[in-house]
Structures are given as C-alpha cells and as structure tokens.
Amino acid sequence: EVQLVESGGGLVQPGGSLRLSCVASGFSFSSYTMSWVRQAPGKGPEWVSTISTYRINYADSVKGRFTISGDNAKKTLYLQMNSLKPEDTAAYYCNVQIGSKEYRGQGTQVTVSS
C-alpha cells in the first residue's frame, strides 16, 4: 500500500524558515518522480516543485527560496522553505504518480503570519 506522510509544518513569521518532510512507503521511492503541491484556503491546488533522477523544477513563485531534495535510503522527500511570505500559507502535500494513479499524503499546514 502506497503511503505518504508529511510533517514539519507550523506557524512561522514572514522571513522565517521551515523544513517539510514526507516519508514514503509501499513503492520504490528512488524510481519515481516526487512533487510538492500546496493548496491555500479557498483556492485550487498549486504545484510547487518536482524532483526526479535527472531534473528539479520549481514554480516561479518559490524559485530561489525553496529547495526540494530526497533521501533514497530514508525514503523521505524534503522541502526546505526559506524567506517565507504570507502568500506561502497553505496545506502542503507530497505527491507521486504511479501508473495512472496519483497518490497524495494528508498534508501539513504552513501558516506564515506575524
């Protein structure tokens, strides 16, 4: 069974940092492209970043502030978020597509506010 469990969210002041983690199980973590997606209240999902063996991509809104990485031995995906802004407030989800099915964790809430 595919499982994705996110953690690391919280309340942080503007300009602060957080590191999100996503522990994966039930599939070969190193073989698949992993992504972070976020959803702010009242808005649709927004793609944040993707990592694969050969490529890393970021949304323009987070480029230069966020860093995605993965630890294959720990089967864990990370998102280091620096210089956080109020508009980064959202629930953050890690995401993997295996075949025709997309899997997402339960999410972790990030709130950026003074």
- Identify the quaternary structure here: single chain
Biggest pleated-sheet summary: 7 strands, mixed
Percent of residues in helices comes to under 10%
Tell me the number of strands: 11
How many separate helices? 0
Helix and strand content put the structural class at mainly beta
C-alpha Rg (nearest Å):
13 Å
The proportion of strand residues reads: over 45%
Write a brief structural summary:
The protein is an all-beta fold. It is built from no helices and 11 strands.
Main attributes?
four-stranded antiparallel β-sheet, seven-stranded mixed β-sheet, mainly beta, 114 residues
Commentary on this structure:
The chain has strands spanning 3-7, 10-12, 18-25, 34-39, 45-51, 56-58, 66-71, 76-81, 90-98, 101-104, 108-112. The termini are far apart. It is built from no helices and 11 strands. The strands form 2 sheets. Strands 2, 4, 5, 6, 9, 10 and 11 form a 7-stranded mixed sheet that branches. The chain is mainly β and 114 residues long.
